[in-house]
Amino acid sequence: MLHFERAANGNVVSPPLPQAAGYVVVIAVGFLIAFIMIFTTHLLKRTAGEDNRTTEMFMTANRSVGTGLTASAVISSWLWSTAMLGSTLVGYNFGVAGPFWFAAGCSPMIVFFALLGIACKLRIPEAHTLLEIVRIRYGTTGHIVWIALCLINNIIAIANMLLGASAAITALTGMHIIAATFLLPVGVILYTFVGGIKATFLTDYFHTFVITIIICFFTIKTFTVPEISSPAGLFDLIVKAGQDHPAIFFGIIHILANFGLVIMDTGFFAKAFSAAPQAVVPGYIIGGIAYFAIPWCLGTLMSFSALGLENTARFPTYPRRMTADEVSNGLVMPYAAYAIAGKGGAVAVLLITFMAVTSTISAQVISVSSIISFDIYRQYFNKAATDRDAIRWSHIGVVFFGLFSAAFSTALYYGNVNLGWTLYMLGVLTCPGIFPTVFTILWKRQSWAAAIISPLLGMATGIAVWLGSAHALYGEITVASTGQTLPCVYGTVASAFSPGLYSVVISLAKPANYDWADFRKEKLSFTRISSAKLQSRIDSKSPVAAVSDYTEDAAKFAKWGKFAAFWAAATFLGHWVLWPLPMYGSRYIFGKEFFVAWIVIAIIWVWCTMLIAGFYPIIDGRKQLQLVYHGLTGKKKANDDESGIETPTSGVLEIKESSRFGN
Question: Which segments cross the bilayer (predicted)?
Answer without folding.
Answer: 20-40, 61-80, 100-122, 143-163, 169-193, 205-225, 245-264, 284-309, 347-372, 393-415, 421-442, 449-469, 489-509, 563-582, 594-619
